[in-house]
Write a structure and sequence with these properties.
The protein is α/β, with parallel strands linked by helices and about 270 residues long. Helix content is about 35%, strand content about 25%. The chain is built from eleven helices and ten strands. Strands 6-7-8-3-9-10 form a six-stranded mixed beta sheet, sandwiched between helices. α4 packs parallel to α7, α6 packs across α7 and α7 runs parallel beside α8. It is globular and about 50 Å long. The protein binds adenosine-5'-triphosphate (ATP) and magnesium ion.
C-alpha cells in the first residue's frame, strides 16, 4: 500500500456528456458524481451504451464534458488546455479492449512501449534522463514477455501477448492510475485468467489505483474492491464489490448479477 492511499485522486461533479450522432442527440452521461481514492480498485459495470467508456475517457482527460467538473489529484482538469495536462498524461494510462487496433502494426514493440515516454508533455513531467532501454526491459519483464520482444512487431505475438504489450506500454511512464476498458473481452477465454492475474499482481506490486470497465462481472469481481453500476448515463449503485454482490440495491443490478455465468470451481 502506498503512503498516500486514501487521498482523493479523482473527483467528478455533475458530469454530463452529450453527443450528436447523425441527427440524433445522445446523452451519454447524465449527471455523474464520483470520487475515487488513491489505491482503490474501481470496477464499472452496466449494459452496453450505459456510458462506461465515456466516463473513463473523461476521467483520463481524453474527452471533455458538456457540463460538470473533473479533478485529478486536487487539480481541476475540466477546461485545462492540452499543454497543461502533462501531469495527467504521465500519471494516468489506459489499456483498451483490442490490442489489434490499439498497437500500431508498423512500429516495433520497443517503439510502441516507449512511445509514451517520448511525448513532449510526458517528458517534461518525468525526472530527467529516463533510460528508455532500461525502462523497456523493466516493463517487458513485468508483463512476462521475453527481453527481445522489443525488436519484433505486434503481429508476431498472440492476442494475449499483444495485450501484455499494451499493458507494458501503459506501465512505461510509471503511472499512478491504470484505466482498463474491457481489458480481456477481446481475448480467447483460455488466456483471460492469465491476463487478469497479471493485472492483479501488477496493481498490487506497484500500488496502482485501478479503474476497470467491463460488462463481465467476473472480471471486476476478480480485480476490484469497489463497484459502480451504470445505467443510461447514471451511476445507479456504488459500493464495496462484496457488498454490492451480496446486497444489490436495484433490480437492474440484480439482473446484471444473475446474468453472470456460474463460477467454475473445478479445474483451471
Ligand atoms: N463518439 C461518439 N459519438 C456519438 N455517440 C457516442 C460516441 N461515443 C459514445 N456515444 C454514445 O454514447 C452512449 C454511451 O456510450 P459508451 O461508449 O460510453 O457506452 P458503454 O457503456 O461503454 O457501452 P459498451 O459496453 O457497448 O462499450 C451510447 O449511446 C453511444 O452510442
Ligand atoms: Mg464501452
Amino acid at each position: 500500500m502506498g503512503e498516500r492511499d486514501g487521498a482523493e485522486i479523482f473527483r467528478a461533479e455533475n458530469l454530463t456528456r452529450r453527443y450528436r450522432d447523425g441527427g440524433r442527440d445522445v446523452l451519454a452521461l447524465d449527471g455523474i458524481d464520483i470520487r475515487l481514492e488513491r489505491g482503490q480498485r474501481l470496477g464499472i459495470v452496466g449494459e452496453s451504451g450505459s456510458g462506461k467508456s465515456t466516463l473513463v475517457r473523461l476521467l483520463a482527460g481524453l474527452d471533455r464534458p458538456t457540463s460538470g467538473r473533473v479533478w485529478f489529484d486536487g487539480t481541476e482538469i475540466t477546461d485545462l488546455p492540452e499543454k497543461r495536462l502533462g501531469f495527467l498524461r504521465a500519471s494516468v494510462q489506459m489499456v483498451f479492449q483490442d490490442p489489434r487496433s490499439s498497437l500500431n502494426p508498423r512500429m516495433r514493440v520497443g517503439e510502441i512501449i516507449t512511445e509514451p515516454l517520448r511525448s513532449r508533455l510526458v517528458r517534461r513531467q518525468l525526472a530527467d534522463g529516463v533510460d528508455h532501454a532500461r525502462r523497456l526491459a523493466e516493463v517487458l519483464a513485468a508483463v512476462d514477455l521475453p527481453p527481445d520482444a522489443g525488436t519484433r512487431y505486434p503481429h508476431e505475438f498472440s492476442g494475449g501477448q499483444r495485450q501484455r504489450i499494451a499493458i507494458a506500454r501503459a506501465l512505461a511512464p510509471h503511472p499512478e492510475v491504470l484505466i482498463a476498458d474491457e481489458p480481456v473481452s477481446a481475448l480467447d477465454v483460455s488466456v483471460r485468467a492469465q491476463v487478469l492475474n497479471l493485472l492483479t499482481d501488477l496493481v498490487a506490486a506497484r500500488g496502482l489505483t485501478l479503474v476497470v470497465v467491463s460488462h463481465d462481472l467476473l472480471v471486476v469481481r476478480h480485480l476490484c474492491d469497489q463497484l459502480a453500476v451504470m445505467r443510461s448515463g447514471r451511476i445507479v449503485e456504488r459500493g464495496e464489490t462484496s457488498e454490492v454482490y451480496s446486497h444489490p440495491q436495484t433490480d437492474y443490478t440484480r439482473t446484471l448479477l444473475d446474468s453472470v455465468p456460474r463460477i467454475r470451481t473445478s479445474g483451471r
